[in-house]
Design a protein that fits this description.
Helix content: 25-40%
GO molecular function: enzyme binding; protein-arginine omega-N symmetric methyltransferase activity
Catalytic activity: L-arginyl-[protein] + 2 S-adenosyl-L-methionine = N(omega),N(omega)'-dimethyl-L-arginyl-[protein] + 2 S-adenosyl-L-homocysteine + 2 H(+)
Structural class: alpha/beta
Number of strands: 18
Shape: globular
Strand content: 15-25%
Distance between the termini: 11 Å
Number of helices: 15
Subunit structure: Interacts with NDUFS2.
Keywords: Methyltransferase, Mitochondrion, Transferase, Transit peptide
Largest sheet: 10 strands, mixed
CATH topology of one domain: Rossmann fold
Bound molecules: S-adenosylmethionine
CATH architecture of one domain: 3-Layer(aba) Sandwich
EC number: 2.1.1.320
Mean pLDDT: 89
């Protein structure tokens, strides 16, 4: 606990956060069957109708990919959708404590695996850069612990707009940014605390090397294929133009088997499933990297362990939104299937979790950290915001139960590699991974 207490001294105190709307993306489900009273013909709808008229109905995965990340019109590409004024709120935007505890997690793993002389912090889908900013503040606070370690930050982001916001948040552009839109490293700079930082569109462009990877509310935006069990076997759900209503889309079933069926387990018992091949590709890449060069990956998201059926939904202005209405104006998301992530990592690295957010944060010492911040603040509005943020993150009826933590680690980490065992330790190492058990400094 020494480190947490030390965080409470020095300039680090409560950091201003937006007011907390009562809705978050993990919350409700939408089937896309709501009436289309208000269905403006957006540029994205026009694009999709043209596409469907030219080549036929599209899969839900293709729809999600076009709507969210089409380079010209995608929802994520040109807007800031996070926070009070946007469409949804995420944990790092709610409370600084969230990112601080994740910063502690990475330091704890770095210490447990032998304090390498360098590491890369890699975040997938960093939003406004708030989370990595909170993590880097912890790294600065613990400068004496990390003093002989060369750290670099690598952000994987498809959004031009969000990458600009990240750059502003993290670098304050004191040192001019290097930009090269045509290069796999499309932006480079130096953070406020002097750490080199680079931006990429794809994980495979990030240099290989000892790294800690972070994906918070990233896997849920990756495209899913939807399937329904029929008397003829699995049939994929497609999106077509509604012949009854002009400028409206509708769900239809494929008349025959489609290739993505290969991603459904042979012993699947559900009658509707969502599969996310892109998530599998990313988990395989992370697993190979971690097995080869060490480090760890921490994934936090809402999801299930291979049990849920229909989770594809939309959010706009902090409200549930019909996924087929006004595409390009609302966020689309689907719960993460952690059982699939675990299968994709199997044999290459060890995995831990998913465990509920309230358990993970409790194990990381959220109560101690909250107390330190409350003790330091006399401002009633700041104290109220800290308490409200804590409730939102921890309350099992709010984000506490819906969000999960999942980690990928080298097998040696759990078996006790050469850096990890000392004569007094007799417990299996799995119990010593912070968050998945109580934080303990070694
Ligand atoms: C739901 S937001 C989460 C943001 C942030 N992690 C947070 O929790 O506040 C998803 C993030 O992933 C990015 N993103 C979406 N699809 C992506 C993709 N295929 N590759 C890289 N980034 C992507 C978005 O631009 C955004 O930054």
């Amino acid at each position: 606990m020494t480190v947490l207490v030390r965080l409470g001294v020095g300039p680090l105190s409560a950091v201003a956060r937006a007011a907390i709307p009562s809705i978050w993306r993990g919350k409700y489900f939408s089937s896309g069957n709501e009436p289309a009273e208000n269905n403006p013909v957006t540029p994205m709808l026009r694009h999709l109708m043209y596409k469907i008229k030219s080549t036929g109905p599209i899969t839900v995965a293709e729809y999600m990919k076009e709507v969210l990340t089409n380079p010209a019109k995608g929802y994520y590409v040109y807007r800031d959708m996070l926070g009070e004024q946007g469409d949804f709120i995420t944990s790092p935007e709610i409370s600084q404590i969230f990112g601080e505890l994740l910063g502690i997690w990475f330091i704890s793993e770095w210490m447990a695996t032998g304090k390498s002389t360098a590491f890369q912090l890699v975040e997938l889908g960093p939003g406004r850069g708030t989370l990595v900013g909170d993590i880097l503040r912890v790294f600065t606070q613990l400068g004496s612990v990390l003093k002989n370690c060369d750290i670099s930050v690598h952000l994987v982001e498809v959004s031009q707009k969000l990458s600009e916001i990240q750059a502003l948040t993290l670098t304050e552009e004191k040192v001019p940014l290097e930009r090269n839109a045509g290069s796999p490293v499309y932006m480079k700079g130096v953070t406020k605390s002097g750490i080199p930082i680079s931006w990429y569109r794809h994980l495979h462009d990030v240099p290989k090397g000892y790294s800690f990877y972070l994906a918070h509310e990233f896997f849920d935006v990756l495209p899913v294929h939807k399937f329904q069990k029929t008397a003829q076997g699995w049939r994929e759900v497609f999106i077509d133009i509604d012949p009854q209503v002009s400028d409206k889309l509708r769900f239809v079933l494929a008349p025959s088997a489609t290739p993505a069926e290969a991603f459904i387990q042979h012993d699947e018992t559900r009658d509707h499933v969502e599969v996310c091949p892109d998530a599998g590709v990313i988990i395989e890449e992370l697993s190979q990297r971690i097995a080869l060069t060490g480090g760890a990956a921490l994934v936090a998201d809402y999801g299930h362990d291979g049990t849920k059926t229909d989770t594809f939904r939309g959010f706009c202005g902090h409200k549930l939104h019909d996924v087929l209405i006004a595409p390009g104006t609302a966020d689309l998301t689907a719960d993460v299937d952690f059982s699939y992530l675990r299968r994709m990592a199997q044999g290459k690295v060890a995995s831990l979790g998913p465990i509920k957010q309230h358990i993970f944060l409790k194990n990381m010492g959220i109560d101690v950290r909250l107390k330190v911040l409350l003790d330091k603040s006399n401002e009633p509005s700041v104290r109220q915001q800290l308490l409200q943020g804590y409730d939102m993150l921890m309350n099992p009826k709010k984000m506490g139960e819906r969000f999960n933590f999942f980690a990928l680690l080298p097998h040696e980490r759990l078996q006790g590699g050469r850096h990890q065992r000392n004569a007094r330790q007799s417990k299996p190492f799995a119990s010593l991974v912070a968050g998945f058990s109580e934080l303990a400094w070694q």
